[in-house]
Fold this sequence. Notes:
By secondary structure, this protein is mainly beta. The chain has helices at residues 240-262, 298-303, 463-470; strands spanning 49-54, 59-67, 73-80, 86-94, 112-120, 123-134, 137-144, 152-157, 163-170, 173-176, 228-230, 269-273, 276-280, 282-287, 295-296, 309-318, 326-335, 338-347, 358-361, 367-378, 384-396, 401-417, 420-435, 444-456, 479-485, 490-491, 494-495, 497-500, 503-515, 521-533, 541-551, 561-566, 573-576, 578-579.
Amino acid sequence: MTHFAKALPALFVVALTGLTSLIAGGQDAPAVDFKAGKNTWATSKVGDWVEYKLQLGPSVRFQVTAVAENGDLTFQHTIKNAEGEQVSDNSRTRAPDKAPVLNRVPDNLNATWVKADYAIGDGKISCDAASWSLEESKGGVWFSQDVPCGGMVKALTDDKDTVWLIAYSKGGKEYRVAEKAAEPKPESKPEPKPEPKPEPKPEPEPKPEPKPKPEPKPETILGPEPARDYGEPITMQLPESVRKAMKDQGIAITRMRVYFDEEDKDGGVVLEYEGMRTEVPIIYAAFKGEDCDKELTYQDWLNRDGRFVDLAVDIRTRPKVLKGMKVQIVHSHLQGETETELSRFEVAVPETGDPWDSLRVRGARPGINRYSLLVTYTNSAGETTTQKGFSHWVVVQSPPMFEFLNSVSCKATRTQAGSNTALAADVRMNGSFILHHGIDPNDCTLRITRKGKREMNLADLPSEVRRVVGKEQAPPGWQEVAKVKFSDGKINGQDVVMVEDSFVRVLFDHSFAATAAVLPVTDEWEYHFELLHKGSASPLATWSVKVDLSIAKPADMDKAKLKVMATGLEKPLEVAFQKK
């Protein structure tokens, strides 16, 4: 028998339980053809948003912030972890057909489409519902013209929900999922008073009852442990562009300090030309590096309320007093080479002659945080002018993965074909996580390796079959199965790595087939999944799945069990071969 490993496409599951308000049935925009792969991003307006909850814990929100003349949309994509803490907030600009939709109908499958009404509060919305089958799995997704930012309402995988819509806003009107009402508890009744007991009579000693035979326990499929951080904390390397900026501004800071320390004039630089006079103030705005946080360990960052960092600034000007002077600190975050502004903080300007205070700024994220100074003032012409100061970078350590979950499931069957018995099993490996906030998924690769053996008795097989099976023998030691770039995510056309911004899902399969004619049989394998990054020589994180099966003789086939152990599972998954 041959051994093969295959990848399965991800099937996100979305369910909507009910909204507090009635949805109006009118359609302002042209109908969207969901069957052709279209979505409602093209008809979404500024201010429209949608929010989903994932069974794994995180929640995801998309909100339209701008629409360009060519139809491209700018939207804010926010991710919160299971505790409701914001872990990612990025602005993206995409064409409507390239904007994210949590679930789409697979292109390579024949889907069946029907019309369906979905109840929402006291009303309902009309949906286009698609369903399909893939091997032993069933999937489905519902779309509605009423839901903006994609239009997805509900999706199914084997009748189990893993993601659901919790709220959305369209045209300035908000619709929110109604929480389930708590079940009424029965009223407590007073305990009855005990009746007086009669005098006990001597009874004959009871005969020991036979012990009941234990009932067989049903097989269970082990799921993952609660989501958690995974991997040793890492320190992100500063990009070359940041290193150059730090070097350049270090020289400039030194020169500017010398100028202000030596210059005693209380005037700015004045330019005069043909009767025109322009005053150009000189501004020195920099952080005092010796008094600022530079690198925080993951534990220190976790222990800080509001995830704050301590900073200190020094700002000097010529002239010493600028009209209408205001100072801001701009906080941005780097993901790979991409820098995203997160927030701005106002800094109180001290009285003339007083020193600048040290600052405590909240909201630092794992990875590289940049803090820049902006000084705004009113010039002699009455115009408001903003001048950039210097920057300071703070690096926060963190594990490479957040909300890491690793689950396995197995389907094993036993089929009788005349006098022969055939066994078949399929182990599904399902890993998911939120990637380290400072890592760009496009810089990552998944490496899959395995080692193990598959031994079986080939003596009774025809010679031509023995030759084919013999060629499938695995070499000793670790062998590379595949390297999958996150930007591609496919092996032989099948999805293995699915990425939506920083949320990553990994799906992989191990299959086994044998008959009584090849017993005894052994199937022992260990799979390693390695998260690789272009800036690291060693894997950022590794998780594993082990498969173990051994059957000596035909009489053992009805009670044989396939065992699977995986990173994150407390005990092995043991699955018997069910008669098909």
